[in-house]
Design brief:
Blueprint (H helix, E strand, L loop, with lengths): L2 H8 L1 E3 L7 H23 L4 H25 L4 H24 L9 H9 L1 H9 L9 H21 L8 H21 L5 H27 L11 H15 L7 E3 L2 H8 L1 H25 L1 H38 L9 H12 L8 E9 L2 H8 L1 H17 L6 E6 L2 E9 L1 H16 L2 E3 L2 E3 L3 E7 L6 H17 L5 E3 L3 H21 L3 E10 L5 E12 L3 E3 L1 H11 L2 H23 L4 E5 L10 H12 L6 E5 L1 H4 L6 H10 L3 E7 L5 H7 L4 E4 L1 H4 L6 H16 L3 E4 L5 H10 L3 E2 L10 H10 L27
Parallel strand pairs: 8-9, 11-13, 13-14, 14-15, 15-16, 16-17, 17-18
Antiparallel strand pairs: 1-2, 3-5, 3-8, 4-5, 6-7, 10-11, 10-18, 11-12
Protein name: Diguanylate cyclase (GGDEF)-like protein
Keywords: Membrane, Transmembrane, Transmembrane helix
Pfam family, one: EAL
């Protein structure tokens, strides 16, 4: 059975339907036949008293037979059916005895029958005291059962010995009311399913029994003789019980319990009112008994009162227990049982409201486990939960009584220290680090853990949210600094994340409003000094911030995925500009476009590049894709395939920042590069450092031997340019030659086509001080 189906079975009410078994159908037919016979007797017989009593006996006997039939059919509730069958058997015995006794002249009552009718209630009390093994009756429920037993004992004392204090008619009515209250109490605590269905049927039977009992005595006191049609009031309840018992399937199909039935069973006020009514009946009966028999009545009154008082106390204790459990579930972490974030926020707020001194400040320590995700993935989430529980126990054992440990989420805990100083908080953090480093035995495994801790101290104007944020930033700073260390919060830690958040928000708007522009840095021929092409560089002039460095917004674009849209815009503008220049000047200049490693995450990167070329009309041979080593080690399996396909289409591939990676030489052999760009770190002061000169000379010679073109980046001095010319480097770019230019300035430069020897530009704009983050992209 599916879990959802099993849950449905457990919370549903059995279906009312006609019985399918032959025996059950026979019993149902017999019960209805007995009732029909009694009705016929009262219609056609002149003096039906004795025949009517016999049919009442048969009706009760049919209910007894139904109960014993259910004993064999419903093994799970056999004890209930057996005790209920005994109750009906007693009632039937009382009725048949009365039927024969009433045949004697002048006899209208039978003491023995009255005794049996009172005893009839006790087996039903035993039925209500039964509790399924899967549940546990609360103390208040047992006290209610004891109160019911006391009441029926009092009722027995009021009726016997003869002459009774109350009449037989009154005892029947009071007995029916008490039984109904007891059954309602039992129905309210019944488990959904067969248990609740059983007591639902029994409670309805008792309601019918009580109503018809009252109706019988009303009719007999208002003109209807004993033995008249009013006798139907005694047989109808038993026939009704037989029918609903046989037509209720406690083991077959189920249907959803109605909303109101569930609400009725779970309504606490119904239980309270019913228990109060039962207690009032017990104390009222005891008071009447005390009036006529002082000693037993006083004892009964005292017992009834004590039971009611105990029941009230038990219910109050139960409510307090439930309230405590509810409060605990709301304020405690369900996995580790330490405080949760709600309680943590409350405690921090309360402690910050107290006056603080230099030695009485509040400290918040944010503890993050190192490498927990690896352990959780390798050893399983159940083991990870056990590990978190153990860590919570260790932290709880290491604090003072006035301190607090809370689980913030995942593998992060918070320790709240009261009345402490910054020096004491730092020393405590070091003790926690030492504790975490200790070997840990868990589920037969030996583990070595470590933690990173960030802590913040309270200030006069701080609040709970700010302290948690500061400690959290300090913890992340500790992780970035190498882990397994403690770090106190410093205000500078917040500036970077806040700045990045602002950049992220503004960058989204900038992309939507097309605020990102493109500047172009010319690439010159070292030999002739003529322009051979350009490198497209993203430039952002913010309406309020002014110039935003690529070093600030490009990493944000890569982290947030906006690099795809940014790259598409730069690629389109660069290709369109290159085609415009080539058509206008009749030239064959190329356009270098940088591609970020994050852009290769898109499987449609080549498709997007081809689409951009088609839209702008630029031939593929004029486009050069610049990539760095980060692209090659990104782990994307289709990188080599994309580069090879791009080269087949006519595009050229450039390896940017060559010489700075771990294995750049192997890349020259394994990937289809056409151009190698020597990083500016090798070019700078080339003429003054023989070691640098040897490296650059070797790189140029190596590239020439592999039939690849070379471009030197970051040239700022004429001496560097002269060395590159001597080494045989083909192309160059840098501030000495030209800074990145706006489209208009680049157009003016192309018109003049000045020689490299006449250009001795020096860096003149702070916006171009960062060249390492120059990009143009495609997806």
């Amino acid at each position: 059975m599916e879990p959802e189906a099993a849950e449905l079975s457990a919370i549903a009410t059995p279906v009312l339907r006609l019985p399918t078994g032959r025996s059950a159908r026979v019993l149902l037919f017999a019960a209805l036949a007995v009732q029909a016979v009694q009705l016929g007797i009262h219609i056609f017989a002149p003096h039906p008293a004795f025949p009517s009593d016999l049919t009442e006996f048969l009706a009760a006997s049919m209910s007894t037979a139904v109960c014993f039939y259910k004993v064999r059919q419903d093994r799970q509730s056999r004890h209930l059916w057996l005790e209920l069958g005994i109750a009906f058997f007693i009632w039937a015995g009382a009725e048949i005895y009365f039927a024969f006794a009433a045949r004697q002249p002048g006899v209208t009552e039978s003491t023995f029958s009255d005794l049996l009718w009172l005893i009839y209630a006790f087996p039903i009390l035993l039925v209500t005291s039964y509790t399924p093994r899967s549940s546990r009756r609360d103390p208040a429920g047992w006290l209610d059962a004891a109160q019911a037993f006391v009441f029926f004992c009092i009722l027995f004392a009021l009726f016997f010995p003869a002459p009774g204090i109350i009449s037989q008619a009154n005892s029947d009515d009071v007995q029916g009311i008490a039984l109904l209250l007891v059954l309602i109490l039992r129905y309210c605590i019944a488990e959904p399913g067969r248990d609740r269905a059983f007591f639902r049927n029994l409670t309805i039977y008792m309601m019918v029994y009580l109503v018809l009992c009252v109706l019988y005595y009303f009719l007999t006191t208002h003109g209807f003789a004993i033995g008249s049609v009013a006798e139907l009031c005694w047989s109808l309840p038993f026939t009704f019980f037989s029918v609903i018992s046989l037509c209720t399937d406690l083991s077959g199909r189920v249907e959803d319990e109605t909303f109101w039935a569930a609400r009725l069973a779970q309504a606490g006020y119904i239980q309270g009112a019913t228990a109060l009514g039962l207690a009032v009946m017990s104390m009222a009966g005891a008071a009447i008994l005390a009036y006529h028999r002082p000693i037993p009545g006083a004892i009964a009154l005292a017992v009834a009162f004590l039971l009611f008082a105990a029941r009230t106390s038990a219910r109050e204790w139960q409510l307090q227990s439930v309230h405590s459990q509810l409060k605990r579930s709301v304020l405690r972490d369900p996995l580790t049982s330490v405080a949760n974030r709600t309680l943590l926020d409350t405690e921090i707020t309360q402690r910050l409201s107290r006056p603080s001194t230099a030695s009485g400040m509040t400290a918040v320590l944010f503890v993050g486990l190192d490498r927990f995700k690896t352990l959780n993935d390798c050893l399983g989430h159940i083991f990870g939960d056990l590990l978190l529980q153990r860590v919570a126990d260790l932290l709880s054992a290491s604090i003072r009584k006035q301190d607090l440990v809370a689980r913030y989420g995942g593998d992060e805990f918070v320790i709240l220290l009261s009345a402490t100083s910054a020096k004491e908080a730092e020393a405590f953090a070091e003790r926690i680090l030492a504790l975490m480093r200790s070997p840990l035995h868990l589920e037969g495994r030996l583990l070595y853990l470590s933690a990173s801790i960030g802590f913040a101290m309270s200030t006069p104007d701080t609040n709970a949210s700010a302290m948690l944020q500061e400690a959290h930033f300090a913890m992340h700073h500790a992780k970035k600094s190498g882990k397994d260390r403690a770090q106190v919060f410093e205000p500078e830690m917040l500036r970077g994340p806040q700045f990045r958040l602002g950049i992220e928000t503004d960058l989204r708007r900038a992309l939507a409003e097309d605020q990102i522009g493109v500047h172009y840095q010319p690439i010159f021929s070292v030999e002739t000094g003529e322009i051979e092409g350009f490198e497209a560089l993203a430039r952002w002039h913010h309406p309020e911030r002014g110039f935003v460095s690529p070093a600030d917004f490009i990493p944000v674009a890569e982290d947030t995925g906006m690099i795809i849209d940014l790259g598409n815009q730069i690629m389109f503008k660069a290709c369109r500009q290159c085609r415009e220049w080539n058509q206008r000047f009749g030239a064959n200049w190329t356009m270098n476009v940088n591609v970020s490693a994050h852009q290769f995450a898109s499987p449609k990167i080549l498709e997007q590049i081809v689409h951009t070329l088609f839209e702008t009309g630029l031939e593929a041979k004029f486009l050069k894709l610049e990539i760095t080593e980060s692209v090659l080690i990104s782990g994307y399996s289709h990188v080599e395939e994309v580069l090879a396909e791009a080269r087949k289409l006519g595009m050229q591939i450039c390896l940017d920042d060559f010489g700075t990676g771990y294995s750049s030489l192997s890349y020259l052999l394994n990937y289809p590069f056409d151009v190698v760009k020597i990083d500016q770190s090798f070019v700078r002061h080339l003429d003054e450092d023989p070691s640098r000169a040897d490296v650059v000379r070797t790189l140029v010679s190596l590239a020439r031997g592999l039939k690849k073109h070379t471009v030197a980046e970051g040239i700022e001095r004429p001496e560097e340019m002269e060395c590159l010319r001597q080494f045989g480097c083909e192309l160059a770019q840098g501030y000495l030659l030209s800074r990145p230019l706006s489209p208009e300035a680049a157009t003016t430069l192309l018109q003049s086509q000045r020689k490299i020897v006449t250009m001795r530009s020096s860096p003149s704009s702070p916006e171009d001080s960062y060249l390492g983050s120059e990009i143009s992209a495609a997806s």
